[in-house]
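Data card: per-record layout.
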Amino acid sequence: MSDEILLTEESGGIAIITLNRPESMNAFNRLMLAALKERVDNLYFRKDIRVVIITGAGEKAFCAGADLKERAQLDETDVRKFIFTIRNLFSSLEALSKPVIAAVNGVALGGGTELALAADIRIASANASLGLTETRLAIIPGAGGTQRLPRLIGVGKAKELIFTGRRVSAQEALEIGLVNKTCEQGQLMGECKKMAGMILEAGPIAIEQAKYAINAGIETDIHTGLGIESNAYWLTIPTEDRLEGLKAFREKRKPEYKGK
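The structure for this 260-residue chain is written out next.
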């Protein structure tokens, strides 16, 4: 196993980022947060990377949240800095100009579930479990969990899970809409790459604008959202990709999009 705290594999327009602290269930310490922030900031400007997959090293954990051994050594100011950093990092990930798929390969607790919530699509292995367990430590989710979970699964169910700190299995997560899909652990990365491959067949500018329209529009009333959608659509009209899509349709072939 590499000593790097993050592993990155890039191929065919897909970047796979692996949280690499399996001995600590891939829990976030300050070093990992800094490394992931640098990686996300870099990917924002990479036109050759069109889909990002995030997963955890090993077979047990996606991410167990904050490293509580490190947390116990932090004073109140350092804890505030940690929460400020992780909250902004997940917001940056959510706003990344390309789709992010969370490959939840095992336990995802606290910040681990919040990381998955910041992704666009979540695919979980059958052995995975997820939960915002912070109230059991006399704190609350601090990296977006109280906001993203109710928007995804509804207020009532989100309150139940946050108030009780209860974990849910992969199957229950699928039933309540917390994850998009489940599969056997050995098939997880293949399923994520399959999903990424389908995204890669679409126009890059269209995907970027669709993500922006959804993320920005969901926070407004429908009339404002329709205006956001309209403006995002206008940006796709003068692109070479749009003309290529029409041409490919006429010629009955797959389009070759260039993000222009």
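Known properties of this structure: Residues 76-94 form the longest helix (19 residues). The chain has two domains: 6-200, 204-251.

See the next section for split statistics.
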